[in-house]
Amino acid sequence: MRLSLFSGGFWGIYLIIMGFLALMKSYANLDIPLFRAGIGILLIMIGLTLMLGGGVAWETEPDTVLMQQRTVTLNHSGSFRTLFGESTFHVEPPAEATSLDLEFDTVFASSTIHLPKDVAVKIDISTAFGQTQLPDGSSWSFGGGTYTSPGYDEATERIHLRGSTVFGSLTIRQ
Asked: What pTM did the predictor assign?
């Protein structure tokens, strides 16, 4: 069992200890200050969890980066989110399909997307209080825009990417 601060195991152990202390106070007539004991036990458990490598991490879906740093290689269409973390996505050329449809949301985070050079791309972006950099060197801090690589309409292999940045940074390279 992985013990992290947001796992059921961590809080289960904490509640069992606190319940035991409450029973001891009631039935054994021990003068135990439950609030102070609870804070102390919580701090000890957090320290032990961090020392044993549990850390502060939420279990998330494979397409979500939350409060961590992750590098992902993509070869399929889908939506991907980075929240309070840092991510690097390496997009491979479409293998089975002739096109990929990708959506990236970056919120209070930093994302870098590496697109293949030999594939035509169309990028639609939306930025609010952040920074989005496109392959042509243009940069957006607020609002939206579109970048289309030369020959996109005639290309057999293409990638359509939609990016949304809120209080973060999104860099798209090709």
From this structure: 0.63
